[in-house]
Amino acid sequence: MVTKVVMPKLSLTMKEGTVGKWYKREGETVEKGEPIVEVISEKATYDLEAPASGILRKIFVEEGVDAEVNAVLAVITAPNEPFSETEILQPVEEKEKEKLVLASPAAKRLAKEYGVDLSHVKGTGPEGRIVEEDVRRYVDETSRVQQPKVKEIIPLTGFRKTSAERVSLSFRTAPHSAIVMEVDASKAKELYEKLHVSYTAIIVEAVAEALREHSMLNSTLEGDKIKIFEDINVGVAVATSQGLVVPVIHNADRKSLKEIDTIINDLTEKARNGKLSKEELSGGTFTITNLGMYGVEFFTPIINPPEAAILGVGKIREKPVVINGKMETKPFIFLSLSYDHRIIDGAPAAEFLGRIKERIEKGLV
Fold first, then answer.
1. C or N: which end of the chain has fewer Cβ atoms within 10 Å?
2. Domain check: are 269 and 338 in the same one?
3. Which of 192, 211, 357, 361 is nearest to 284 (CA)?
4. What are the backbone dihedrals phi and psi of residue 209, each rounded to the nearest 5 degrees, phi first?
5. How far apart are CA 248 and CA 268, in angstroms?
6. With 0-12 CB in 10 A as exposed, 13-18 as middle and 19+ as buried, what is 84?
């Protein structure tokens, strides 16, 4: 039986993914359920399992190439079983491939150095071959000023492409507004030192409890309807070598501070090793992003679609305060809430952020 291996839809907003690595080659035997190809999507890697046992007869999408959701990546058949590529690929429109450009090695090197698309250069060599002088002439003609040389070209694929699309969508569709509050982190520092939990875990706990009381922040806008989620699933942004990922702590309001801290540590390690599962990346209803470890005191993050809001956390800094007529120092942090003004007005957003502030300052996490 001929079986298609297709690009999976790993989230509601996913439109395409990137083939990272094929674990099997054409002609090799595969067993149903074994990892067959690595798919990069939603800023993480996912091992796609073989949907059937048989022979990996044909790979249609090579490593490093993007493919739309449901695009056919490969086909599995029985040994020597006939199949028609035309029929297999009938519902899929293959992406237009780069035109083959005839150019000398020197011309290609110079084009890469200056960031020139060779398809725009007219060749004067034999049979229209582009030579080095053609590239130099093109650079001179298209620029009146000296252009900086290009050190490296990084294709906008995989994690970076997904991130670019999501933040662009968020900023285009959701009218952002932001509010900021300064929070006394003394109690949080005590918990950090006593329980050996991270500040991020403390904030996640405070946010989860506040979301239970202010459910409009735990929602999304679909068409002309606001959907309020019952589950409180808090995503925590994690920086990796390949870009930002947002693993999710499901039902965070039902977990203890210690449990949240353990889950964050586990998800962070998986994120940096590219081992997050589909479930660990799905279902987020609110996101927290912390740049305090980079020395950032204050910033306004972009909402992680399709959520209604996101909380930015700055670094903890000592600040002088007067208590009972005496000068003391206390740790403070800035919390910045960006929210979708179509769903939430300023007053309820302020009440929500104020509740987070209160829980942290009173040690109610």
1. N
2. yes
3. 211
4. -70, -40
5. 10
6. exposed
Q: Same domain for 248 and 348? A: yes
pLDDT single digits (tens) 46-94: 889 999 999 999 999 998 888 888 899 999 999 988 888 877 876 544 4
Residues 191 and 324 in one domain: yes
Residue 295: inside a domain: yes
Q: How many CB atoms lie under 10 A from the CB of residue 238?
A: 23
Same domain (yes/no): 224, 353: yes
Look up the domain containing 66 and give its range: 3-88
What are the average pLDDT values for consecutive 10-residue runs of the chain, which has 365 residues? 86 77 93 91 77 94 88 92 81 47 88 81 89 87 56 64 68 84 96 94 97 95 90 94 87 96 96 87 94 94 92 95 90 96 94 97 83
Q: Are residues 185 and 320 in the same domain?
A: yes
pTM: 0.62
Nearest-CA neighbor of 343 among 307, 302, 301, 299? Answer: 307
> Three-state SS string across 31-82, please?
CCCCEEEEEEECCEEEEEECCCCEEEEEECCCCCCEEECCCEEEEEECCCCC
- Whether residue 263 is contained in a domain is answered as yes
> What's 44's domain CATH number?
2.40.50.100
Provide the 10 A C-beta neighbour count for residue 229.
17
Q: Are residues 129 and 224 in the same domain?
A: no
Residues with active-site annotation = 341, 345
Domain count, the chain: 3
Q: Are residues 181 and 234 in the same domain?
A: yes
Is residue 114 domain-shared with residue 40, that is, in the same domain? no
